[in-house]
Every structure is written in structure tokens, then in C-alpha cells.
Design goal:
With 183 residues, this protein is an all-alpha fold. Helices cover 79% and strands 0% of the residues. It is built from seven helices and no strands. The protein has helices at 14-44, 51-71, 78-102, 108-120, 122-136, 142-171, 173-182.
């Protein structure tokens, strides 16, 4: 590239745009999950004091998942692993919805492991998204590409929080977890 010449916007790369769009959906799920977890503590488990415990388990799972993911040497490309992290996160949210919608008050002994395993998929998915953008974006537009990914996280999370609140009001935390699963 000559002096003063810049590559086209990273969003013009189909790969970067695909990662940004998928990550926006994931972030919508994150926002809904956060609201769903808070509502579960108060409405389903009967104590808002349990919200910290629920967030501890999902965050702990994410930390363990990120450490495990980063410590491994992977043979297959990251683009083949991203769908598995997304599916794992969605499955965990779906299981939470199932627990809440089928049991009046699911026991913590059932809820906490589901929260932990759901969390295991979070950090690896975020790592993969960032690495994919780094690999797919034009070298001279990496900062812009990462800014778009960050915007997807922020915007998706904000939208998911609003959607989650509406779903909790309309149908309770189980319905909101279903919405997060769908996102």
C-alpha cells in the first residue's frame, strides 16, 4: 500500500462483517442473560441476595473456560470453533429456561452447575471473535475492526438488557432465558 492509501472499511470484508453481526446477536443474548439471572434470583429463588451467587458461577465458568481455551494448542481453525461456543452458550441458556419453566422453584443444586457450564463457553467465544477479526481485517484497519467488534458488544448488550426486561415483565425469567437462547 502506498503512503496515504488506506484499505476499505473492515466492514466491507464479508468475514469481519459476519463476525460483527454474529457477535451482536451473542451480545444481545448476554444482555438478556444478565437480566434473566437477576430476575431468577428475586422471582424464582426468592432472594435477591442470591444474584451474586448466580453471577459468581457463570463468571467462574467463563474464567475457567478462558484459561482452558488459552492453554490449549488447537489444530483446527478458530472459525470452526466459534459455532461450538455459541451453541454451548445457547444450550445453557435453554437449560435454564427449561428448569425455570418446568419447576416452580428449581433447586440451587440444579441451577448453579447449569450457570457454570454456560459460563465455560463465554470467554472462549469472546477470544475467538477477537482473533477472527484480527485475522480477517486488513492490517491497516485492525483498530477500526476491533472498534466495530466492541461496538457490537456494547450495542448488543444494551439492546439485550432492554429486551430481557420486557420479556421478564411479560413472561418471567424463563421466557427471558428463552429469548437469550434464541439471540
Amino acid at each position: 500500500q502506498g503512503a496515504g492509501h488506506r484499505s476499505a472499511s473492515p466492514l466491507r470484508s464479508r468475514g469481519v462483517l459476519a463476525v460483527v453481526l454474529v457477535t451482536t446477536g451473542l451480545a444481545v443474548g448476554f444482555g438478556q442473560a444478565d437480566v434473566s439471572i437477576a430476575a431468577t434470583a428475586g422471582e424464582v429463588l426468592g432472594s435477591q441476595a442470591k444474584v451474586g451467587l448466580l453471577f459468581t458461577f457463570i463468571a467462574g465458568g467463563s474464567a475457567i473456560g478462558g484459561l482452558w481455551y488459552g492453554a490449549r494448542v488447537w489444530r483446527r481453525p478458530e472459525r470452526t470453533r466459534y459455532p461450538f461456543t455459541l451453541a454451548g452458550f445457547a444450550t445453557g441458556l435453554g437449560l435454564m429456561a427449561l428448569l425455570i419453566l418446568t419447576l416452580d422453584a428449581p433447586p440451587l443444586v440444579a441451577v448453579l452447575p447449569v450457570m457454570f457450564v454456560t459460563g465455560v463457553c463465554i470467554a472462549p467465544g469472546l477470544i475467538i471473535a477477537q482473533n477472527l477479526v484480527d485475522h480477517l481485517a486488513p492490517r491497516d484497519r485492525l483498530s477500526e475492526a476491533q472498534a466495530w467488534l466492541n461496538t457490537a458488544f456494547t450495542t448488543g448488550g444494551a439492546a439485550g438488557t432492554a429486551i430481557g426486561g420486557l420479556l421478564v415483565d411479560l413472561g418471567g425469567p424463563g421466557v427471558s432465558f428463552l429469548g437469550a437462547c434464541a439471540a
